[in-house]
Write a structure and sequence with these properties.
This protein has 418 residues and is an alpha+beta fold. Helices cover 26% and strands 27% of the residues. A four-stranded parallel β-sheet has the order 3-2-1-4, with helices on both faces. Strands 5-8-6-7 form a four-stranded antiparallel β-sheet, with helices on both faces. It has a four-stranded antiparallel β-sheet with strand order 10-9-12-13.
Length: 418
């Protein structure tokens, strides 16, 4: 039968996804692989030198995260941002080309811990007493008015970098000076971000910590997972290690976590795309610590595997282009990840893995000769452990046992004397 000339021809082109990401990163590669599995073409925008002619041979669009601007000439069907810094370019581009995504104002609030606290407080959510001061100020005055215990945190850094608890004015001043040295590092100054000139002071929140992974569609949250963080995160530093899902908390607590996250999303104006939320829960309620306008970072997304052979990255890219997918159901009853803590400062040489481990996979990402730096100065982990099992308790035990069996060889780093 001849095709009716009055009917439009079917659109057979691949959907195109704009992936705004750092030049390197495990998650960038994982999202690109997910897009390939779903027959989606990826257009990459990365923070590389705009003068060099395609140095990585991937036809990526060069962008500058320190000078975010909309990419007005791209013709794409969806947008995904990897990590926090690319989210503003993603928001500006989505608004310019008419695609649904989180707004510029929402993204900026998510990047600024102080602004987020103000918005959440106005929405009636519990927030700790807080204030901010310039990182180059005299800490003694702030130490005199702080409520103890308190937590000092750089306004713009993530992954608990620079977050320190202080129990008295003496500890406050020491923590402040330590954070100031972090913010004075060349790699931080090079970012040219105004929030890296400020330090947030917050009253310490007691309680248990959780994380929620979700997708937002026209302002409505779809929960993909609630993670327990079974390690006590009480300071003086707050190194995250284990995430396990599903949560072992009561249905009432989980419902409260979801309700608070939904309220926070509405208050911040997060409207379309992935979100990763962190919160503490105690007798006074659910305290939202942060919400990021992106999926969980690094290799941690491997802790989520869904039925129908779908990964978290599959869901993120399908959601971005508006393609439906089955209701997300975990492929195993319980899953988890351990972000391996830095054993001690030094030069990484090798890691001997346990011969018999109940973990699904142990990945050492540190390279020989790499300098390992613990928190609060450090910004990366030497590796990840993944496990699944019949229940969350078994998964947690598998992660801890596998970690106990790793033998690290780390050389002492010698100070350079000029």
């Amino acid at each position: 039968m001849a095709h009716n000339e009055t009917e439009p021809l079917p659109d057979t082109r691949k959907p195109r996804l704009l992936l705004v990401a750092a030049t390197t990163g495990y998650q960038t590669r994982s999202l690109a692989e997910a897009a390939a599995r779903q027959n989606i073409e990826v257009i990459l925008a990365t923070d590389r030198c705009h003068i060099l002619e395609d140095p990585w041979r991937d036809n990526a669009i060069p962008v500058r995260f320190e000078e975010p601007a909309a990419l007005t000439d791209v013709k794409v069907d969806g947008i995904v941002a990897v990590a926090d810094r690319p989210t503003l370019i993603a928001a500006l581009t989505a608004a310019a080309v008419g695609l649904p995504w989180h707004s510029r104002e929402a993204v900026r609030a998510c990047r600024n811990k102080h602004r987020m606290r103000e918005i959440l407080a106005d929405a009636g959510l519990p927030v700790p007493a807080h204030f901010q001061i310039p990182y180059n100020a005299d800490p003694a005055d702030a130490a005199a008015i702080a409520t103890y215990p308190c937590v000092l945190k750089p306004l713009g850094l993530s992954a608990s970098r620079g977050v320190i608890r202080a129990n008295d004015p003496e500890q406050f001043i020491a923590a402040f000076e330590r954070i100031r040295r972090i913010l004075d590092k060349p790699e931080i100054r090079h970012l040219h971000e105004e929030w890296n000139d400020l330090i947030q002071i917050e009253q310490y929140i007691e309680g248990r910590e959780f994380a929620l992974e979700g997708l937002v569609t026209q302002g409505e949250l779809q929960v993909l997972a609630i993670f327990d963080k079974p390690d006590p995160l009480e300071g003086p530093f707050f190194e995250e290690t284990i995430y396990v899902t599903p949560s072992r908390e009561s249905a009432e607590t989980q419902q409260a976590i979801v309700a608070a996250t939904k309220q926070a999303i509405t208050a911040l104006g997060l409207s379309h795309g992935p979100i990763h939320a962190e919160m503490r829960v105690n007798a006074r309620g659910v305290y939202i610590l942060e919400i990021a306008a992106r999926p969980i970072g690094g290799l941690c997304a491997r802790a989520l595997r869904f039925q129908n052979d779908l990964t978290l990255e599959d869901l993120v890219v399908l959601h971005a282009i508006g393609r439906p997918f089955p209701d997300p159901v975990l492929a195993r009853p319980a899953m988890g990840v351990m972000m391996i803590p830095v054993p001690r400062a030094g030069i990484f040489q090798s890691a001997r893995l346990p011969a018999n481990s109940a973990a699904d996979e142990i990945i050492i990402t540190a390279k020989q000769g790499q300098k390992l730096i613990p928190l609060p100065e450090g910004a990366s982990y030497p590796g990840f452990i993944f496990a699944s099992g019949p229940d969350a308790a078994t998964v947690e035990l598998s992660l801890r046992s596998a970690h106990d069996g790793i033998e690290f060889e780390i050389l002492t780093a010698l100070d350079v004397v000029s």
